[in-house]
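My current task is to audit a protein record that another person submitted. Alongside the sequence sits a line of tokens, each denoting a local backbone shape. Where you disagree with what is written, explain briefly why. This is what I was given:
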Amino acid sequence: MLNPLRRLFSVVEALNLLPRHEYKEAKQKLNRQPGVLQDELSLLEKSTRFVTQELEALHIEVEDKNHSLQEQIAVITRSRAFLERLIDSSHLFIVTQNFDGTILTCNTRFENEFKRPTANFTDLFMSDESRKLFQDRVDLLKGGHCEVIQLDAEFANDQGLPIYLDWTCSIVDDEKGRNIILAIGIDLTQRKRDEEALEWLANNDPLTGIGNRRGFQHDLQKVLDTQRNGAVVFIDVNRFKQINDLYGHTVGDNVLIQIAESLRASVRSTDSISRLAGDEFTVVLPNITAEQLEKLLHKLSSKLNGQLFLNNDGRWVEYSVSVGAALIPQHGTVEQELIVHADMAMYQAKKKGGEQWQIFDPATNDLADIRRDHDLISLLKQALKRTDLFELNYQPIYSIKSETVSHYEVLLRLKDLNGNPVFPNEFIPAAERMGLIGLVDEWVLDHSISKLATTWQAGHTFSLSINISAPTLQSNTFPEILNNLIRKYRVDPSHIIIELTETAYIENFQMVLTNLERISESGVLVALDDFGVGFSSFSYLKKLPLSYVKLDGSYILDLENNPDNQVFVESLNKMVNAFGMRTIAEFVEDEITLKKLEELGVEYAQGYYIGKPSPKLLEMVAGAGFEPTTFGL
């Protein structure tokens, strides 16, 4: 009786262990070996063992699946966190919204840019037009007419400043399966600004802020296409390269900026101003008559000439312009024709002198002069590189008292490609206009000092007087260039005379004075040419470190028959001598003039009677006695 009860009690205990998932202990409770005879308890034990095994298997399966599920949840959690960080750290703007624009979610970039409370996406648009366009495209998206919409528009950020965004929108399902809009935006503000800057630079000059050549061409073509009449004005800054060379490019740039500002203030709002090249400006004038153009040109020729104050030096830099104009359609109906004619008019104005203007006159064709200038510049550039186009000539300067040649003046000569002479009064002004005079002066200095050295080596000692232009004398590099050549060729600086004209002091006298003092300290002598004409500022005599003063030839010609000139020459000579300097008379053409100069106390003479210019320096030096009219013949 006890045995069946124990068996039944074991089954009950095993069943009580199952809810606690203690399957091993339950199976131990049912571990009795079945007997031969099967009774009801045997069936109960067998069923309990089966249930225990099944529940244990199910429990193991559930545990395995639960573990797998936890791993999947962890992966999803990490993936979601990664995506959230990715979205928040992205430079993209990411927003979800309803079809009415109500914002549902957004990333950190969007929140930082639009910090003010914003409930509706459409409130961010800066224009009603963009807002309506966006809503129209959302309607297309909602109606299934397209899968994606795209929109570029300006938005207002949290500071109310415009930013330019490119949005791409599509329909997605939210967590509840409802359709919403996913909007992804790219900030195009910088690119837009860069594009606008490039577009501006394509048509404008970055230095002055006015139009450039492309802008000029566009504005001119617009006038040609739409207007019946108009004009093109061509403006050139006089001696601009000299300003750059003397004061530096920063000062030159400031001059250009000042001229551009004056242009803005001088023309109508309908006119277009441009900087065509380095120192060239243009104005396109629509709907203007010849009478109105004359008044404007007169105004420009006055307003565009000015001064620029140099804070470092405490002085003013003066500048001026030459202005030319061509009328539409009288003087041309295409761009090139109008530019050429306006340029020709400007060239004619420049020939008149600074601060002048000129309207193109078909009866006065200056094209030949322009071409001549172009040919001269080309020839000068070749002469600076070759050895057969430039040639130095030497003219003796005679000591009247000692009746011997004192020194020689160096004179530059030029031949064209056919061997024909080109006169200095042609190529020197052209070199000055085109900014080549500095290079020409350096060529003359180098070859003159080299010639002096080689002739000395042949046993002949003499001095050379070398002409230097005003722009070079006003360059702060001139003393260094000269001293370097003296060291290079190892010549005595006291045998070099730098000769300058009185008109060299029109601009920047202080710079010239500084340069002459520097070269004088190194032993170089200085001569003043053409004294008595131009400014006739006798105060220069006591300021400049001069050794020689050359009396202008206009006082020497026909001196014998002009008592007034005799008095003037004698007075000038006494004054020059009083400053410890010596006078040289130019244009001595005969013996009578030479004797008269001797009577008046003039010490030196130069002219064809003394000797003509010649390239044969060694021959002249070898026979340096005086035989009238034989030198250079």
Summary: Residues 65 and 448 are 105 Å apart (CA to CA). Residues 626-633 have pLDDT under 50 and may be disordered. DSSP finds 21 helices and 21 strands in the chain. The first helix runs from residue 2 to 17.
